Amino acid sequence: MDKSLSGVNFLMGVVIGSFAGAAVALLMAPQSGFKTRKILKAKLNDVMDEGMDKMTKFKEEKIEPNIEKMSEQLMDSAKNVKSSLMTKLK
Known about the structure:
Layout: H1 3-28, H2 33-89
């Protein structure tokens, strides 16, 4: 598996697991519906915050460095083409 996708796969697992846990909690909850919804809302907010943190970390660690690297490679290629054209025009 591509290492760059492992963070996304993990995040998807967290989200799916959270929804499964929420469904079980609804079915097995001994408290009132209002209290259950309040608990689920708090847990969903926690999961969403964790997911956003993971996505930010993934972006910072995997995506941004690759974009910078690709930009540098593109600039180097453009400079090489320019240099080659200048040489041929002389």
